[in-house]
Amino acid sequence: MDNLTARIREGEGETLEFKEQWNEHCLEAVASFVNTKGGALLIGVEDNGTILGWDGGDRDLQIVINRIVEILGIHPAVSIRKEQKKPVLVIEVKPGSILVSCRGRYYHRVGNSTREIPSEQLGLYFVAKLGAQWDSITNGYSFDLIDVTAVRRFPELAKSRLPFAKEDDSAESVLRKLGLIRDGKVTRGAVLLFGKDPQAIFTSAQIHMGRFKDDITIIDDKILKGNLFTQLESVIQLFRTYLQVRYEFEGNSREEEPLSAMQRKEIWDYPIEALREAVINALIHRDYFPAGAEIHIRVYDERVVITNPGTLPEGITVDELKHEGHPSILRNPLLAQVFYYGELLEKWGTGTSRMIALCRKHGIPEPEFSAKPDSFGVTFSKNFYVNDRLVALGLSERQMKAVQYAKEHGTITNKEFRDLTGVSPRAALRELNDLCMRTIFVRKGTTGRSTVYCLTKK
Fold first, then answer.
1. Which of 100, 165, 241, 367 lies at a CB distance of 3.0 to 4.6 Å from 34, suitable for a disulfide?
2. Number of domains present in the structure of the chain
3. What is the domain-level CATH number for residue 97?
């Protein structure tokens, strides 16, 4: 380590840690450096950088080296350096090509601390170290797992974007052209896309979908299995079952033509194309590593919530998703590529902005995106006045009651507001006027009993 004095002055960080003396926890720190960016552990230095000195001898030094080799299976660079005339034991390691465990646990550096890697993130770390994506790994899977008929149908679906795949190609040839066969074995992506029974191998690679009256009242509950194309088709069929639809007729029929000659247009609660885009995003971007983690789709009276395992890739924020052309970092590039060839995906990085545009055109609120440490979700609302949005707007509980009352009865008056909330006439006027200022209510009438408040049509 060059310029030890300067490094100690900088303090602990992602690649440097101080310990007053050697103990078994030092092994965790060394492992964390190997699993992150490499680094150095200094023995004989306090957390604040004060030099205490290492008082070990040659035998103690050999014990330290042996413990690192035995427990971690690595060979560090170990030296004793003089700092302020005191010996400091310096243990340096480089980043490893594979993850190193310490007594069955895996550690990484987060800032200046050593932390255990959460079990749900371990798969991502292994993939990163291997330099491969989850969907490109083979695990020795044979061609017998593949539904040949499903593969043979794909060239017709992808004929405009995959001209080098012909309908008379063998199933194995199609998979090779799609990059789904590696070293003579089919990849995980191939099994998910064209497998006979993907859930026999990947038990969590399914969709749990239900119709809810509220968070505890379940009206219908389904588990959707099969390959990814089958799952997508099943979801859309259930959406058409769960959601409400109305019909509008376009054009005018002439007297000599029957009424049936008019074109009938289906108007769903939500744009089906936007829901479909959200499901596709969940299927191709979800994290398939965590055991027991499924895609969840909850359909309520006034909203649809789609949640998939795996948060946003590092470097992408929720705000960036709202703008076309945001960075597209693919967790499962093979899945995305095949969906693109099949014209189920337009361009990478445009799915979220397309959902927003479709919802605006449909006259409903923009979808709301949320990223948690282990999941990503999108919520569609069919009106602007759902409780979650009203809370986010900072409405009081009384004002939220007024909004819900107006939704049910069409309007609300000052007296009805007072009866509903028990406030004085002046307080009622103040809170109703505030809702008008927020453009949630519009006031109709002048004064007195003729005045009513209606929800604005957004």
1. 100
2. 3
3. 3.30.950.30
For residue 21, count other CB atoms closer than 10 A to its CB. 12
In this structure, the answer to whether residues 93 and 197 fall within a common structural domain is no
**Predicted confidence (pLDDT) per residue in 402-425, tens digit:** 998 998 888 999 999 999 999 999
CB neighbourhood size of 96 (10 A): 17
8-24 per-position pLDDT tens digit: 999 999 999 999 999 99
Domain termination residue (choose one: 96, 117, 138): 117
Q: CA gyration radius for the chain?
A: 30
| Nearest-10 Cα torsion for 343, 344, 350, 352 | 170
Q: What does the alpha-carbon distance between residue 236 and residue 242 come to, in Å, rounded to a whole number?
A: 10
- The position carrying tokens 């965790």 is 28
Phi, psi of 237 (to 5 degrees): -60, -40
Strand partners for 266 = 247
- Which residue type is seen at 37? K
- Structural domain including 435 reads 390-455
Q: What is the length of the chain?
A: 458
Nearest to 429 by CA among 417, 441, 437: 417
Give the DSSP per-residue string, 12-78.
SBTTEEEESS--THHHHHHHHHHHTT-EEEEETB-TTS-B------HHHHHHHHHHHHHHH----EE
Residue written as tokens 């009242």? 217
